[in-house]
Each structure stands twice: as C-alpha cells, then as structure tokens.
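User: Last request for today: this protein with flavin-adenine dinucleotide, please.
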Amino acid sequence: MTTASVEHYELIVIGGGMAGLPLTQKAALKGRNTALVEKELLGGTCLNRGCIPTKTMIHSAKIMHHVRRAAEFGIVVGEPKANLQAIVRRKDEVVKPIRDGTYRSAGKIKNLSVVEGEARFEAPGRLAVGERLLESATIVINTGTEAMIPPIDGLADVDYLTNRSALDLTELPESLIIVGGGYVGVEFAQMYARFGSKVTLLQRAGRLVPNEEPEVSAVLMEVFQRERIEVVTGAEVVGVRRSGGDVVVSARVGAELRTFQCTRLMLAAGRTPNTASLNLGAAGVETDRAGFIKIDNRFQTSAEGDWATISPAHRCSRIRRETTPRSSIAPSLRVIPARRWINGSCRTPCSPILPSDRWD
Ligand SMILES: Cc1cc2nc3c(=O)[nH]c(=O)nc-3n(C[C@H](O)[C@H](O)[C@H](O)COP(=O)(O)OP(=O)(O)OC[C@H]3O[C@@H](n4cnc5c(N)ncnc54)[C@H](O)[C@@H]3O)c2cc1C
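Assistant: Here's the final one, the structure of the complex with flavin-adenine dinucleotide:
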C-alpha cells in the first residue's frame, strides 16, 4: 500500500494516443486541471508504431516499385536494392521531430500534467501510477490496442515479428510469412514484397481485408497477384516450428494440412485491447470477453464518471452497425464526441458520427 499524497485533477485521461492527446489538450486549454497518463510515448500507436512509420516506409517501397517499372517510362536504371537500415533510419527521422513537437506542445499547455507511467485503478476515481496516486471524478480511458498473439502451437519457440518489430528490421527477410490479412497484414505484405522479400500471406477468412467491401478485397488480390505475393485464404494456422534458421508454418486449408517455410514470420492476426493491466474491476468498469470496455451510446462505461473514447480500448456492436459510410480516417473522427463531451453537449447519443473501429 502506497503512502503517497493524492493528486486531484478535474480530468484524467489514460493513454496519450491520437484520441487521448487532443481530448486532454482541449480540456486543459479550456482551463480544466488535467492529467494525461502515458506508459510509453506520446502519440501512441499511430505516431510511434502505426500510421506514420508504416506510411513512411511504404513510401520507400513505392519508390522501389516505381524504379523497377522505370523502363516502361523510358528510363534506364539498374535493379534497385532496398537498404533497410537507411529506410528505417529515414522512418525514425520522420517520426522523431513529430514526437518531439508533441512533447514540446504538451509541455507548454498550462493546466496539463503529463504523468509518465502505467495507470492502474485502485478504486473508482482513483489511479496508481508508480508511486503516485491520482484522483478525479472523471477518468477517460483511451489505452488503445496491441497486436493480438493467437494461441498457435510452438509459437513460444519461434522468433516472430509484429507491427512494432517489423518497423525496425534492418535486414531484409529472404522470405516472410504474414499471418493475417487485415489492414496491417496487407500493408506489410506489399511493403516487404516491394523491398524484395518473397511474401506469403495466410488469411483465415475467405478474403483479404474482410471488414472492407468485397470489391476492395478483389482489387487487392489482383494487385498482389501482379506483384507475386502469394495469398492463401481460408488458412487456419495451427502450428509453427523452427527448422534450421527457418520457420515452418502448418495451416489447415480446407481439408488439407499444408506447410509453408520462411526465414521470418510476422503476426498480424488482429488487435487486442490494452485493458488487462488497468485493474478495471477495482473501478467497476466492465469489459466483454475479449477485454474491450463495454460502453453505452454516450461512451460512458459501467462506472459512473468513467468514459471511454471511441478507440480500440472498447467496442460495441451497435457502433459498428451504425457506422456509415465506412471511413478510413478513424482518429480524427474519433475525437469529435470527446470534444462534444468537454463542451457538455454530449448528453444525447453521439453515435451517428462514430467512426468504425476498423483501424484497430
Ligand atoms: C501498423 C498500423 C498502421 C496503421 N495505419 C493507420 C493509418 O494509416 N490510418 C489510420 O487512420 N489509422 C491507422 N492505424 C490505426 C491507428 O494507429 C489507431 O486508430 C490509433 O492509433 C488509435 O489511437 P488511440 O489514441 O485510440 O490509441 P493508441 O494510439 O494505441 O494510444 C493508446 C495509448 O495508451 C497507452 N497506454 C496503454 N495502457 C496504458 C496504461 N495502463 N497506462 C498508461 N498508458 C497506457 C499506450 O502506451 C498508448 O500510447 C494503424 C495501426 C497500426 C497498428
């Protein structure tokens, strides 16, 4: 039991990602004494291991692709070669100033305290962050998601990549198997294929990006075929094992048990919410079986005073059904209800403007 004195805030936001950051800044600028708790880096997934780093590296891959096609446009060049060290360095050089700027601007905001560390509920309205105790009548949970690690036989003995580590590889895999054909799997598949790896994508569903319209999956399949990316749909990965320096993946494809071999394995099998370490039970915040926070149509959790932003930490089927049109710019839309909430106008359901949680 800690004996630290308790810090009181009008608002505490847990998680400094693309949903938590603007909410916190807005509240502090409106004069509310606000704390933002972040256990890793401000900017969260999008800035540090999602949208921005991936799109930066994808741009390098696109240039590689254009150079390969240069002859079609009457330009004579040699065979291009990806220098992953330089590509990763460039990605870091793009991300770092944005992150530094985020810290600088957060540091300048009066009424905003950035608290570094992992938040854990001790009681309703009370959080422990390391030795510190924070209290507020209003706590917004915006803790995002991580790559889901599926229960595959043998995985503990195999060195696998996720979206975090696949952004820092400095050696190009000769061959790469990606498990999962959602948006993360497909972007990494095309990127590494364009860099020069032989890529195989194993997708459990019957098509790529099954949350998108079927037409999108069909176009992707066509492009992937053209770019020699092997896609196996209906593939349920059941086991992995090491074989020399390689990884052997077994998957049930229809009635068949097939094996695939690669030098590197990447898991992109979905996202899991960062809620396990929050000790939500102590605050009376309920989750579903997958750990996503249950919310009502005003984003309120089952605990009075605790709110969840429309972010990966929670989801509900009602939100999914009402989401039209399907948008791909989730984070910016996501904070609109939060803004309304700060302004005190989110008393009626905010759902018509909700984004889908497809990006999470
Ligand atoms: C590979 C990849 C590519 C993507 N590309 C795109 C794209 O191109 N366009 C797009 O719109 N979206 C994209 N996304 C999705 C986008 O990253 C997310 O929608 C967005 O980051 C969600 O923001 P968030 O604030 O809800 O959560 P996050 O950004 O995940 O932020 C949550 C924060 O909470 C912190 N946290 C967690 N638990 C605790 C705790 N107990 N205490 C304190 N802090 C905690 C985490 O460290 C994290 O910083 C991509 C995602 C991935 C993985």
